[in-house]
Amino acid sequence: MEPVTDVVEIEPVVITGVGMAAPLGLCADAVFDRVCAADCGIGPLSAIESALPPGADGGQAPDLPADYLPGQPREVRYLRHAIEQAVADAGWDAIDSAPARRAVLLGTTLHGMRAGGEFLRSGDYAALKNLLAADTLALAIEGLAIEGPRLTTCSACSSSLDAIALGVTLLQAGDVDVVIAGGYDTMSEYVWAGFNALRLVSGPPLRPFVRGRQGMKVSEGYAVVVLERRADAVRRGASMLAAVSGWGDSADAFHLTRPDPSGDGAARSMRAALSRAGVGAGEIGLIAAHATGTPDNDTAEAAAIGAVLGDSAAGVPVVGFKSHLGHTLGGAGAVELILSAKALAANRLPGCANVNAVDVEYPHLNVRTGPAVVSQIEATLNTSLGFGGANASAVLQHPHRPVTRGRKSREVCVTGVGVIAPGIIGHDAWVAAGGRLHEGHTAIDDAALAALLDARRIRRLSPYVKHTLAATALATRHAKLDESSDLLRSASAFLATTHGSVGYCHAYYGQIVRDGVAAANPMLFAEGVPNAAAAHVSLTFGLRGGCRTFIGSTNAGLDALHLAALRVAAGDTPLAVVGAAEESGDVIDAAYRGCDPAAPAAVSAAVALIIEPLEAARARGAIPLAQITTASPSASVTVGAHPRGAYSVGPLLSLATAVLQAAGPIRVTAVDRTGASSAAHVRP
Fold first, then answer.
1. Spatial distance between the Cα atoms of 213 and 361, rounded to a whole number of angstroms
2. Higher-confidence position of 311 and 495
3. How far apart are CA 626 and CA 621, in angstroms?
4. Contact 466/446 with Cβ under 8 angstroms?
5. CA-to-CA distance for 182 and 184, rounded, in angstroms?
6. Which of 191, 430, 519, 535 is the most buried (most CB within 10 A)?
7. Which of 475, 437, 358 is nearest to 650 (CA)?
8. CB 241 within 8 A of CB 345
9. Is the torsion defined by CA of 557, 558, 559, 560 positive or negative?
10. Neighbour count for residue 523 (Cβ, 10 Å)
11. Spatial separation of the C-alpha atoms in residues 644 and 424, rounded to whole Å
């Protein structure tokens, strides 16, 4: 099992189609034109489910025709609208690829959360069939013949830019031929109340980077791009809007809701994107900043731009698209990347709305104001900065620009496993139990985790997050990783969950439905977002690589493993923590049994794996437990059905059992109830 060191040429990835719905319009061209005219789309929020305080406003997409997908959830209707635009723009029917070679990757913060409010008000469990991200995705792509990876990722407000970067990874690895990537978040009382409770929502207009700025405007947005390898697009004569020539991701490892004021995490993601693109600071003609208009975020981002660009910063125009649209949350990265691509293609440089140059607080920033001007743009840099310090950046260039880069393809191995389940703490206990959950036991006693977790630090965390942290602690120890080591600090996290912190979400939303948006609990909101575990893994173990969570399906754990293995093999991260976790509880059980009386009880469990390059593992004295391969070995066997009620954890429990018992070549498969499937292959 010698490591593979062949240099593989990287084929540039280009955007061949775009689609959008946002507060200034129902297509990308309409939104871009109004942004260039310095328009602002903030206004009344008639689509929100409950009463807001007098004068409250935000960003809402224009109404779709009443006969367009009537009866479907709001997020499905608008997301489908954006996808239909993008595939028409790309000439989808002319793309010569098998359905299994087509993928869709979406990013979101709160998926179908409006369904939760419908349920809480009506008591009708049928409403919850539209809650999970996998269901939203399946409805949005129905009829498009996509049988490759179909997954949803969450890294809060950087979700959709991260999804696009992951799409680039799939294409450059040769796994698929075409990807629909982007993201969405819909207008909801759940999210407005949460950001308001955190005192981040502004009454006056959103004014990024100015003195006296007061905060953000909650908005909605739906945006997707069609991605292809450039050679494939050229071969079929497709029109190419821009090339995604570089991406970067990072974690602040600083705080759950506040950015590192030094901007270090954001700066690392920007530098990584520029480095992958082979672009110098002087070549950037537009920075599309995250620019939420909140005091802390703008300060950190201004510091990051200054650190990355140095003396060049004053010459690089900066625009904050949220000043026009509000904060479109999980959709923001994709919305703003498309607007940057339009600016690049048209050589039009937009300005910020609501901003006068004399009011800008940071002298080193060249914040653009007023209507758009004509300007030659060679490359753009986008940044998205999310809760938990989840940062993502991307560089766009003109699609025909020559790119000559390569990489080494590394063999990837598992060096650590951590398993926790009811009455089972640790991989040795899991093997002793025969790789089976104890019959009739569904919950994990916090006292059993005392040796793994700091009791004071975790006292306010949800069970889902605690389980993730405990399994990660076991896996890092098994892999012989010093928790203060540079290797672990440079690692990335690829986590998974079907449901996340259900108990916290239910308690938080129940208060809003009973008592109104002013009753929202900020702690429950922040700890209940789907990427809370990824944020806490970063904070607890000091991970500074990209940290995200694949959500809303039983495939999520294998999806996380797949993307992590590709990133490690390509040298994009030196080590990855891969995990899945679920919490049990009456809320989950009642929801499933309300739809299906035979549904199994939810089981609390978590699995974490440490994966790294085989050669590097051997060099540091770690024991390779198994190798991960992207091709199915001919001698592989299929592991039986995963434990019912373990949801996203189940497939990784099966895989962990195979790894720990060195049971020969193993193929683990999961099929979600929407029909999407994922698989992973390991061998000793």
1. 10
2. 495
3. 15
4. yes
5. 7
6. 535
7. 437
8. yes
9. positive
10. 14
11. 17
Nearest to 104 by CA among 61, 147, 71: 147
Question: Tens digit of pLDDT for each residue in 23-35?
Answer: 999 999 999 999 9
Q: Rounded to an integer, what distance in angstroms lies between the CA atom of residue 87 and that of residue 340? A: 19
Residues 102, 97: Cα–Cα separation, whole Å: 7
At 648 the three-state DSSP class reads coil
Q: Enumerate residues 6+ apart whose C-beta is below 8 A from 571.
A: 407, 408, 410, 613
Q: Is 624 exposed, middle or buried (0-12, 13-18, 19+ CB in 10 A)?
A: middle
Q: Are 106 and 181 in contact (CB under 8 A)?
A: yes
Give the integer Cα–Cα distance in Å for 643 and 655. Answer: 12
pLDDT of residue 8: 59
Indicate the residue type of 530. Answer: P
CA distance 562 to 78: 29
Residue pair 86/78 in contact by the 8 Å Cβ criterion: no
Q: pLDDT at position 639, please?
A: 44
How much is the pLDDT for 642? 52
Residue 371 to residue 376: CA distance in whole angstroms? 16
How many beta carbons lie within 10 A of that of residue 8, not counting itself? 15
Positive or negative: CA dihedral 522, 526, 528, 529: positive
pLDDT in tens, 285-335: 999 999 999 999 999 999 999 999 999 999 999 999 999 999 999 999 999
Alpha-carbon gap, residue 105 to 137, rounded angstroms? 9
- Across 76-95, average pLDDT: 96
Cβ–Cβ < 8 Å for 376, 255: no
Token pair of 284 as six digits: 């950037």
For the chain, give the percent of residues with pLDDT over 90: 80
Can you tell me whether residue 330 is helix, strand or coil? helix
Strand, helix or coil for residue 132: coil
HSE of 567 in the Cβ direction (CA atoms, 13 Å)?
A: 29
Q: What does pLDDT average to over the chain?
A: 92
Q: How far apart are CA 147 and CA 46, in angstroms?
A: 37
Place of tokens 């039009």: 348
Stretch 353-372: mean pLDDT:
95
Q: What is the DSSP string of 387-414?
A: GGGEEEEEEEE-TTS----EEE---EEE
Tell me the C-alpha distance between 663 and 666, whole Å.
7
Find where tokens 């999980």 sit.
330
Asked whether 454 and 472 are in contact (CB, 8 A), the reply is no
| Cα dihedral 589/590/595/599 (nearest 10) | 30
- Tokens 């990347």 locate to 337
Average pLDDT over residues 598-610: 93
Report residue 535 as tokens: 């944020």
Confidence band for 2, pLDDT divided at 50, 70 and 90: very low
DSSP string of 412-461? EEEEEEEEEETTEESHHHHHHTTS-PPTT-----GGGGTTTS-HHHHTTS
**Cβ–Cβ contacts within 10 Å for residue 447, how many?**
8
Mean of the pLDDT values across residues 357-370?
95
Mean pLDDT of 154-163: 96
**167, containing H or E segment:** helix 159-172
The answer to whether residues 29 and 439 touch, using CB atoms and an 8 Å cutoff, is no
Segment 655-674 shows an average pLDDT of 79
Count of CA atoms in the C-beta half-sphere (13 A) of 274: 20
Q: Which residue has better confidence, 132 or 454?
A: 132
Please check whether residue 471 is in contact with residue 420, taking contact to mean a CB–CB distance below 8 angstroms: yes
Predicted pLDDT of residue 404: 54
